[in-house]
Design a protein that fits this description.
By secondary structure, the protein is an alpha/beta fold. It contains nine helices and 14 strands. Helix 4 runs parallel beside helix 5 and helix 5 packs antiparallel against helix 9.
Length: 318
């Protein structure tokens, strides 16, 4: 089987998780990693037996052996790094949120189109087998007419005004950092046609949001969503219809889902995976490239744009 050659942008925590899962991807292999500090890149490369380590991102983008880059840096850097990769002719899988505005998102997608390269936002949740199974149950009418989606994602984050989470210059705030997940799961099941929204938010001393609750009315149902740096939330998703409901524990990294009728669990799915789950999006991106597709078939450019419009709608009510 032909394999897609990956380059990794950033040698931090999220890139570590992604590369750990590449062992479960049969259509791709990691050939290089780049970091702002060459020693960090070399340490990362040695840890994962990666052949090449670069001390600049541009050096990685100029490597003729690399087909696609995975961008795992903080989200305020995504736009410029993805832009540079696209202009160098590389395909891109960029961590979520892919940008921090709808204007940036639109610019990137247009740039990818103009340069005939593949660009996808790494919303890994959309590729998880349990999420796909839950959607199948909904589409089969097993919970009746969809009425509500309830989802939250929050963990207490120690306050550090200079850290990525709380620094406004680094696009800090829980909405960008964690809130993208409940927004994405609501969009996955309810679509993107938002009729109205109510938002309640708290803010850190630096001015960034650190606790956000959202109630949205979609054309197809209602969504009750929350995200927080202040406290550990339930972190489950509930997909509720008039004939039953589905529970997705830790939905953002879901390994299982259960379908209920009233209080009785009537069906359960577990994926039994050994990986963390990043391999599913990497496999899908690789397959798109092997199939000569220049637009993603799951997390589409339009979907990424609508994520940003949803976030902007929330932020306008702060």
């Amino acid at each position: 089987m032909k394999k897609i050659n990956w380059g990794i942008v950033g040698a931090g925590r999220i890139s570590t998780l992604f590369v750990q899962d590449m062992q479960y991807v049969d259509n791709g292999q990691v050939l290089a990693v780049a970091a702002r500090n060459l020693d960090n890149a070399k340490t990362f490369a040695n840890k994962f037996a990666i052949n090449k380590a670069y001390g600049s991102y541009d050096a990685l983008f100029q490597d003729p052996e690399i087909d696609i880059v995975y961008i795992g840096t903080p989200h305020n850097f995504h736009f410029e790094q993805a832009k540079a990769a696209i202009l160098a002719g590389k395909h891109v899988l960029c961590e979520k949120p892919m940008t921090v505005s709808s204007a940036e998102c639109e610019q990137l997608t247009q740039l990818a189109k103009a340069n005939n390269v593949y660009l996808m936002e790494a919303m890994w949740t959309y590729f998880l087998p349990a999420i796909i199974q839950a959607k199948k149950w909904v589409d089969e009418g097993k919970i009746g007419q969809l009425k509500h989606v309830k989802a939250d994602f929050g963990y207490p984050m120690p306050y550090n005004p200079e850290g990525r989470e709380y620094n406004p210059d680094l696009a800090g705030g829980c909405l960008f950092d964690m809130g993208i997940y409940p927004i994405a799961i609501a969009n996955y099941f309810l679509g993107n046609d938002i009729k109205s929204m109510f938002v309640s938010a708290d803010f850190a001393p630096t001015g960034v949001d650190n606790d956000v609750s959202m109630f949205a009315e979609f054309a197809t149902g209602k969504a009750n969503l929350a995200t927080s740096f202040q406290c550990k939330l339930n972190n489950n998703a509930y997909i509720i219809g008039d004939k039953g409901y589905i529970v997705l524990p830790d939905f953002w990294q879901a390994k299982s889902c259960s379908r209920y009728e009233l209080d009785e669990e009537v069906e359960r799915f577990e994926d039994q995976r050994q990986s963390l789950g990043f391999n599913f999006e990497a496999q899908a991106a690789g397959q798109d490239l092997l199939d000569n597709k220049l637009k993603p078939s799951v997390v589409t450019h339009q979907q990424s744009y609508l994520f940003q419009k949803h976030i902007e709608l929330v932020r306008r009510q702060f």
